[in-house]
Write a structure and sequence with these properties.
Layout lengths: L1 H13 L5 H14 L5 H15 L2 H12 L1 H9 L1 H7 L10 E5 L4 E6 L8 H4 L4 H4 L1 H9 L1 H7 L9 E6 L5 E5 L11 H5 L4 H5 L9
Parallel strand pairs: 1-4, 2-3
């Protein structure tokens, strides 16, 4: 009966670790013991996305758009083709839409159904991006959520929330910070933060 099924599910959930990181570790251990996955291969994949991709590729895209007007125009006109021409698309990022921040509009990205995210550009999504709280609240009260990230927007700047899907991933093109006019693309990339490309932050002066 439904009631019995509910009780069974509740009891099973109660046995799960409270930390999502522990869920992943428990699942990895189970799959490894059954011979379904190779722990060394999983570690290599994670290291690739964390160290080789991370948000670095996305940061270079943003920096190039800031410093190269022709590239910026191409990225806005057809981002998928432009990124594909440089080999920057791939699994979990086959079709990308670039949304540009302006003094009038600030963009922020979420995936309300799961955690769709442009892995080829930004690497592994942060844990908060996958949380139920972020996915639900940023749609209802985006300014409040952004304030909790430390981002206070001017009253005259509206907020536009973009919902990622299995078919479409979004990349926020933040506004270029003032005082960076003399910097080249490599130096500019150091200003681009992961959160600024999601919309929960702004570019920051490198430490």
């Amino acid at each position: 009966m439904p009631h019995d099924s509910h009780d069974h599910d509740h009891d099973a959930h109660a046995l799960l670790p409270p930390d999502p990181a522990l869920w992943v570790k428990a699942l990895e251990t189970l799959l490894s013991r059954k011979g379904y996955v190779d722990p060394a291969a999983m570690d290599a994949i994670l290291e690739f996305y964390e160290e080789k991709i991370g948000p670095r590729i996305g940061a270079r895209v943003v920096a190039r758009a800031w410093s190269d007007p022709d590239y910026r125009a191409a990225l806005q006109a057809d981002p998928t083709a432009t990124l594909a021409a440089d080999g920057l698309l791939g699994r979990q990022g086959e079709h990308v839409v670039v949304v540009e921040n302006t003094p009038e509009v600030h963009n922020v990205v979420v995936c309300t159904l799961c955690s769709c995210y442009p892995w080829p550009l930004l690497g592994i999504p942060p844990s908060w991006y996958k949380s139920d709280a972020y996915r639900a609240r940023v749609v209802r009260e985006p300014r409040k959520v952004l304030a909790e990230f430390g981002l206070e927007l001017p009253e005259g700047q509206s907020v536009r929330v973009w919902d990622s899907t299995a078919e479409i991933r979004y990349l926020v093109l933040p506004m270029r910070p003032s005082g960076t006019e003399g910097l080249g693309a490599e130096a500019l990339a150091a200003w681009v933060t992961r959160n600024s490309m999601i919309g929960t932050g702004l570019p920051e002066r490198p430490a």
